[in-house]
Amino acid sequence: QQQVKQSPQSLIVQKGGISIINCAYENTAFDYFPWYQQFPGKGPALLIAIRPDVSEKKEGRFTISFNKSAKQFSLHIMDSQPGDSATYFCAASMSNTGKLIFGQGTTLQVKP
Amino acid sequence: GAVVSQHPSWVICKSGTSVKIECRSLDFQATTMFWYRQFPKKSLMLMATSNEGSKATYEQGVEKDKFLINHASLTLSTLTVTSAHPEDSSFYICSASRGTGGGYTFGSGTRLTVV
Q1: Residue B97: what pLDDT?
Q2: Which of A17, A55, B83, B101 is deepest in the core (most CB within 10 A)?
């Protein structure tokens, strides 16, 4: 119930392409769904986040698509760049506990 | 805004000694802070939740006597790894909550190596 399942584990995309990472959850009490980017040896940095009352949110090249009925959400990175090469984590939390539960992570490599 | 400073960024200690890691929210008050552990190429695993002025809540399987957490003020939480052993070597990351709807800000992490 507390798990967030993320796929794929790794992803290779050509420069300029679209990177898509998917996550699924079971607990309908989750009400905050952020995506984080992490570079080696650094802490995660927030990319974009969404709440369940919205189906899509776009910030620059990053878009979250949220499907409440399917309990799934995804991150789309448009015009992927080599500098986007990093590990991406989806996460979910619920207001009453504040705990952030992370997905397994996706290592993205953008080839020049 | 919303900066969390974590120190040290890396530390090497001898087996049997204790190590303290500090997590400070620089420009906001964090009523709740979280401590995570991350193994190489793995996800972040929540260790404990600390609320200012009260005892930390530990996740199942986390030894509270080994990982001492103190949240003495609204801007500072500390994690002390007591009697460290090589298996405690890991990347430890703190996070501070800005309250309901305010999101979470992460520190830059601490690489602990126990030799």
Answers
A1: 86
A2: A17
Q: Choose among B43, B93, B105: nearest Cβ to A103.
A: B43
What's the mean pLDDT in B20-29?
93
* Residue in B closest to A42 by C-alpha: B108
Local structure of residue A108 (DSSP, 8 states): E
CB contact under 8 A, A44 and B93: yes
Angle at B75 between CA B43 and CA B21, to 5 degrees: 50
Rounded-to-integer distance, Cα B74 and Cα B76, Å? 6
Q: Which two tokens stand for residue A96?
A: 């009453």
Which H helix or E strand runs over A26? none
In chain A, which residues touch B (CB < 8 A)? 32, 34, 36, 41-46, 49, 89, 93, 95, 97-105, 107
| pLDDT for A61 | 97
Of A41, A95, A100, the CB nearest to B34: A100
Q: Are B110 and B7 in contact (CB under 8 A)?
A: yes
Is the pLDDT at B64 greater than 90? The verdict is: yes
